Fold these 2 entries.
Entry 1:
Amino acid sequence: MKYLEFEVKKNIGILKFNNPASLNALNTEFLKELKQLILDISPNRDLRVLVITGRGKAFVAGANIKEMLNMTPCQAKEFSALGKSVFELIENFPVPVISAVNGYALGGGLELVLSTDFAYASNKAIFGLPELNLGLIPGFGGCKRLSDRIGLQQAKELIYTARMIDAQQALEMQLITKITEPEDLMNEVLKTAEEIQKLRPNAVKEAKELLNACSNNSLDVVAEIETNKFGFIFSHPQAKEGMTAFINEH
């Protein structure tokens, strides 16, 4: 792979963006490679958690401006659709996806972080959607996901000002859930991933689908999904095994 590294350790997938010379900027080729990898690993039943991070100074410093400069409106629309399709695959990936934000997560980089389930960040990380500085707007689903994550008012302020924020500000906005020293970032993320991967995978999968349904549906709709899933999960041996183990331990 040209832009990516991928390995699996103890049922935890570790995906690293590996184009540090361009601060892991997203171009068409990069996005297509990422999309194919996500499609290839999705059916892997041994995978319990996916961790995404970047090599070098950036998680992803945004989309590749040099490539975008010469795009026609039609090409720009196709680029936006490609990015959205990749991030939707990440958002709906069958297992939890954690961002380990090691540096810059700007523009498309922040939009990618927002498509993962939650994020830990190094205290060196910088976040923002600075597209308005370029006369552009976020194009990979960032407006919706950011407003879902931190609230519409704060999202508007961040986008309208094109402001960049540090990890502490991101934590206060609930954009991320933990800050670490740079050298501790992957250890902390993998510790949490290990906690998740010890749980019964079917329950984790159903919980992720239910939680994702919360953002786009009314309480009544989510309640019905929850009730159906709660009934359905009793058809899985893992549920009986889990309850039996609990009774035997107590």
Entry 2:
Amino acid sequence: MKGVNPVACSAAATAFDQIAGIYDNVFTRSSIGRAQRKQVWSSLLLAFPKGSRLLELNCGTGEDSRFLAALGRSIVACDVSKAMIDIARERAAMEGYEDERLKYLQVANEELELLHGAGCLDGAFSNFSGLNCLDDIAPVAAKLAKLVRPQGRVLICLWSRLCLAEGIWFLLHGQPKKAIRRLWGKARARIGDIRISVSYPTVTAIRRAFSPWFHLESHRAVGLFVPPSYAEDWIRPRQKLLSWMEQMDTRFAQKPLLRNLGDHVLLEFVRCPH
């Protein structure tokens, strides 16, 4: 994996470069960000036992990779944004992680073929919507199939096609169009000063994209009761309510129908043996 070249400049890279310095304050360290991330962490720890060799896509500032590395997993973490990677490397160094346990590379989702020297990985994961920035997720699935060993697992967390909490939030704020904005499947999102295309694929579409190489073992909502991040100012002084919402997510996030209605959906795939 040494010698991987930096990716070419793109709208997504430039956009996330712009917000890298504030991302943790806006989301990672927010009450909502912590609540939703804990839900994903629980699934990651169950899917990837200690000693697993993993690939992370869209690693951002490295919060997930540092968490897993501290608990005995080895991670190669990638992101399209140089600024995000720089912050992730700096924080890993400050926290004393060894190079062999945790590596950061500036590699786009579209260029995972650059990682073919990685060997046979035990699994891969992507947290919090990085894959929503792709028009077509199937090429990523195909490239992951060449990196992940048979019976290895891939966990991806994306914005869902329909978010129950978002619908209620915008209806209460008199914005019915925003309440159903995800249903169209495509949108333009402002990241920093740049607008990028965002997709909201259905679980069926994602399963179909992965199906030649992976089978979908399970999926669950992330943020079914815990609201989207733009509700942070409202929920911050209501920590008891947030705690109740987290408990409700734990109880209901895997129920049929409800598991498709979270702010995000977390899908767990298993690599086919062939």
